[in-house]
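Q: Fold this one first, please.
A: Sequence and structure below.
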Amino acid sequence: MKMKKLVALFATAAMTMSLTACGGAAEAPAEAPAADTAAEETTEAAAETTEAAETTEAADTADIDYGTGEIKVWVADNVVDFTKAQIDKFIGDHSEFSGYTFTVEAVGEGDAAGNMITDVEAGADIYAFAQDQIARLVTAGALEEVAPENVDMVTSQNDAGSVAAATVGSTLYAYPLTSDNGYFLYYDKSVVTDPSTLEGILADCEAAGKSLYMEINSGWYQTAFFFATGCDLTYDTDDQGNFTKANVTYASDNGLIALKKMIDLKESKAFQNGSAIGEATNVAAIVDGTWDSGAAQELFGDNYACAKLPTFQGADGKTYQMSGFGGFKLLGVKPQEDENKLMVCDAVAAYLAGEEVQLARYNEVGWGPSNINAQQSDEVKSDEALSALAEQLAFTIPQGQYPGDYWGLATSLGDSIISGELTSSSSDDDLMKALQDFQDTCISYAQ
């Protein structure tokens, strides 16, 4: 396995630290009782055996030659200096990798995948990317699967959403970096007394003459309703990244429940279409993301509060938890011909995606950790927006790849509600026709 020697090295270091942490033996009495002589000899023999084993293993790992070379790293511009400093720290602690020179370049998560797919050989050895690009990267041969020895560590230490985002089929292909892209509820707690239900929020806003903002003519936000009721909307791709199949179930009883709730929302006098708090007026609640947390705090002041998205009651009388898309930043390693270089890349990627660095990254630039322990740190837990998002992400699906035309189609569906073409007076047949047209068009994008 590609990390076997490296894991053995770290295991030896861990064993040594563990033994050191146990401290020295208690001071022996001046004259030990004769009955203890055999026990002492046995203990000394065991210690000598352990010492010999450790010496042999240390010698074996010390003899590993990881070679020399250059490793290119791509990360977003605002974490270039941070990443350089973290890599320098890691190499300083692991001189066995000092034969490698690291170059950290500014290539954003949105651009990294396109650049890698265009020319894998010229691309970065380690790179951060948005989770919706993972299938394209795998089919292009631009992602090495996570080292088998690291899989348990990654899956146990990061939240389920980020692990799912880093997985294609049953294979883990990337190291989660963040769980901080998605939407949730900002609200004015002097107006909204209970943010747990959509009906309650609307009632409070209506009573106060305030507005609830949500962008229902967006293919990103409107999935909050459809995914809540159990509808599917995903695409399969082939090895070239072409869309081969659309998995869409909007034209269904579940889709009808979701569409009717969107119509109910629009017909509330408190509703306003939008998702940018900087453009909202007379607002008491808004569905938005962490990127607007500063603006929300400034607007609501002492009444600033955050929560996961609410539940809603469907036309069938059942309660549904609003869902939607979740977004994650991932760190990938490019396949390497040199096995030693691959082991070094894996070690660095695992470190950059680990608890310590995720927490440091949050403190430096505010990226929300995917690491479970980091999420439970005092710093992160005190961040109300990230806490609300973390709770909401448990109900979402990672955003995959979607045809460009899907987004315009989703806007049209929302616009038909906003314009009054589809209303609470529309028949179920008319509503189902709109859903069927939407679904058929979605499917056509993969044909």
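Q: Good. Now the second chain.
A: Here it is, same layout.
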Amino acid sequence: MTQKTIYALSTVYGKSGVAVIRISGNDAINAIKELTNLNLKTLKPRYAYVTQIHAVNVLEQPLDNALVLYFKAPHSFTGEDIVEIQCHGSRAVLSSVIENLSKIKNFRLAEPGEFSKRAFYNKKMDLTEAEGLADLIDAETEEQQKQALRQMSGNLKNLYSSWREQLLEIYAYLEAYIDFPEEDIPQSIIEKNLNTVFKLCESIKKHLSSSNFGERLREGFRVVLTGPTNAGKSSLINAVVSRQAVIVSDTPGTTRDAIDIHLNISGYPVVLTDTAGLRKASDSVEKQGIEIARRKADEADLILAVFDASKDTPEIFEKRLKNKTIYLANKADTLTPNARQKFEKQNCLLISAKTKEGLPRLFEKIAEHIKSTASSSSTDIITHARYRESLNECLENLERFNFDKQIELSAEDIRLAARALGKITGQIEINEILDKIFGSFCIGK
């Protein structure tokens, strides 16, 4: 059965100057035939035509004046014939054009992500590039944008595919000797394959040991405010966002739950979390809030330890917080010059939620911490948790591989390792292995 042609609005629905409706499939060109007066015989791919869009079978019912472009397969985003209609973005125009597309034979509305799915099936992109595209669409900061573009360019695809290619080559050797058991495996082949597997294990371990910077860049770096009650954590949150984001009160224990605020700091996405004040809980609800605060601090990428500099010192915090922690001496506007100097010598950042003193420097220090994490990562960084899971699966199978057991079991270790890498890129095909076998050996000679 022929796959239906799909259509969908590619821009955000609503009032806008221009909107793009995309159509993809074998019958995409019929949209031009049914909705315009353009001559299909003289239609040139990749040319923009200004034309009137009219209702299906009703030439006298104009819908809009639009630009129409035709992209001939396989030179298109999906690898299929594509037609794009760039019309005005009013709700009336969009509704009428989409309604008329639904009347064309073999046309249907696209499912979420179906254009990219077709591009994947037509080998226009692999799964890592598709996910890079999704990340680019969702990008809210400059650094997220850069990472998504790197992934779309094929950085991760090339790395994982090169590893998988080496495994398929080893698998081809092993399959050949399984088919011809009377032949002994030369020692040179054994040593070569063992050396390749050893090097791959080391490369994957190094890749896995790099920081989770890529995943954090997608999801947001977790920065948690912690400290005693009435230290000014909630006031600091409000000062950072310049609005009443959380309730502020002199009553201890006002903040009971963790509250997330999303920020863009120097191009990096940051999730700033306000937590319950640390003290001996007076009731079960507050006790639960304090427990959440401690857990959030343990999971944080960076801790902002806030204390009231008018009455406390950084020594009130547990020693276990010293890693990944910036100490914030709040209410600095109340301090004498000598007191300020004392806290500065203790590497405390002087801030005031009331006057916003120190906030620019705080943002700088948060960005510096994130950049220091980035500097320990290569350009080819793991961006999705599923990549990490599949890489660990691959590594487990490679570490089991040796020539001290039946060759069928050794081959299975390599096959499973290659399959794990294929899960990342979407390459899980038996034909590739057959091509390797018949391309590398003169079987049947």
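Q: Anything worth noting on the second one?
A: The chain has three domains: 5-121, 138-210+383-440, 219-375.
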